[in-house]
């Protein structure tokens, strides 16, 4: 991804990469090693994306959009891009009857533990705040994380991306503080009652990403 981004120019087509990684922990640029409790032999890879440590493994659909944000027009920036990545996951979950949520101060998508299909808004959802107000402290009451997000933007071009947990062994998440948060519950589609394949979930996610990022 880094090589592709460094080599591209204004004529290079945007791309969307989908993959399923072998078991690996990845650490963001500001990663704190204390968030890794015990690797149990799983390799740790230092990356140049934002965020803290997360886990990738079989049964997880990882999407890497490699796009030039300038093609989206004046005023389209990183905040809008992140919103669209999250929205693609929310729409994918909705096709399986699951409601995805955002949590203020914590990028990614979450599912309500007590009612995965319920549409009631989270009290800890992002809401308007004045620029002079302090950033919210994330509140993970009654939610589990089902999709993690970490990106890098270089010369207005994006890489890294978003990972949706489909049907995977969630045990390795218990050996870290996921995304830097101790005790954060981690879910996949299987644990909220959805029976599907990696190919189906990855295909749906890719379809929504293409539609939302097409410009």
Write a concise keyword list for the protein shown above.
3 helices; 215 residues; BirA Bifunctional Protein, domain 2; alpha+beta; 3-stranded mixed sheet
Structure explained in plain terms:
With 215 residues, the chain is α+β, with helices and mostly antiparallel strands. The chain has a single domain (2-129, 137-213), classed as Bira Bifunctional Protein, Domain 2 (BirA Bifunctional Protein, domain 2, 2-Layer Sandwich), CATH 3.30.930. The protein is 19% helix and 25% strand. The chain has helices at residues 2-7, 78-95, 198-213, and strands at residues 15-19, 24-27, 44-46, 54-56, 60-66, 100-103, 106-112, 143-154, 157-165. The strands form 2 sheets. It has a 6-stranded antiparallel sheet. α2 (78-95) crosses α3. It is globular. The chain starts with a helix and ends with a helix. The mean pLDDT is 96.
């Amino acid at each position: 991804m880094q090589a592709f981004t460094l080599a591209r120019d204004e004529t290079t087509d945007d791309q969307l990469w989908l993959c399923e990684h072998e078991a690996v922990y990845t650490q963001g640029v500001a990663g704190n090693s204390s968030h890794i409790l015990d690797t149990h032999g799983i390799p740790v890879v230092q990356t140049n994306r934002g965020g803290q440590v997360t886990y990738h493994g079989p049964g997880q659909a990882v999407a890497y959009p490699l796009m030039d944000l300038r093609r989206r027009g004046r005023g389209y920036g990183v905040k809008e891009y992140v919103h669209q990545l999250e929205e693609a996951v929310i729409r994918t979950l909705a096709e399986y009857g699951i409601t995805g949520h955002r949590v203020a101060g914590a990028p990614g998508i979450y599912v309500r533990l007590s009612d995965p299909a319920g549409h009631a808004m989270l009290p800890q959802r992002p809401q308007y705040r004045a620029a002079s107000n302090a950033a919210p402290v994330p509140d993970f009451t009654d939610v589990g994380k089902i999709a993690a997000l970490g990106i890098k933007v270089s010369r207005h071009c994006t890489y890294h991306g978003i990972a949706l947990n489909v049907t995977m062994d969630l045990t390795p998440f218990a050996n870290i503080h996921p995304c830097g948060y101790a005790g954060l519950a981690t879910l996949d589609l299987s644990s909220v009652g959805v029976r599907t394949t990696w190919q189906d979930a990855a295909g749906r996610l890719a379809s929504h990403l293409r539609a939302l990022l097409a410009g």
